[in-house]
Design a protein that fits this description.
2 domains; 4 helices; 71% helix
């Protein structure tokens, strides 16, 4: 009877591990499809910019297209930020990080990149980044008290993590 209990526990553990890995793979696949879609949108914007520049070049009278191109560039910036965010999410799913120099995917524990040899700098914790953003931002007078409370809570969280 003990044998079957152990076998059942092992089977349950194996199922949980497999389900977890399958879920991560499915989520990673969805992220990669989303990244592909966003890259297609970026390429479309590049194409639009090129067409506008060329059409302006061909015209006898020049039209100011600076604002139109600037709008397209801003859209590309937004899409690029979203792609970067999704890539980071994908790396987190695989428990990996990206080399700061060659941008290759490497293990989180690696102190040096196995591809280029670059020393990997530890990334600051999210709370530290949020605290710095909060300290550098302008806050309305009526929300100063609330901002101070949030800042103190973040400092406490950071101090607790250091201990």
């Amino acid at each position: 009877m003990e044998f079957f209990d152990k076998l059942g526990k092992k089977a349950t553990e194996a199922y949980k591990i497999t389900a977890d890995k399958t879920g991560k793979i499915a989520k990673e696949t969805k992220i990669k499809f989303k990244i592909g879609d966003l890259k297609t949108q970026v390429n479309g914007l590049y194409e639009e910019i090129g067409k506008k520049v060329y059409e302006n070049h061909v015209r006898e009278e020049k039209v100011d297209i600076q604002n139109e191109i600037e709008e397209q560039c801003i859209k590309i910036d937004v899409l690029s930020d979203e792609i970067d965010s999704l890539l980071k999410e994908c790396l987190q799913l695989k428990d990996k990080k990206q080399c700061h120099k060659c941008y290759k995917e490497i293990n989180k524990e690696d102190k040096f990149c196995p591809n280029c040899g670059e020393k990997q700098v530890e990334e600051p914790a999210k709370e530290v980044e949020i605290l710095e953003d909060l300290e550098n931002s302008k806050i309305d007078d009526e929300k100063q008290d609330e901002a101070k409370i949030v800042e103190e809570e973040l400092e406490q969280d950071i101090n607790n993590e250091d201990e």
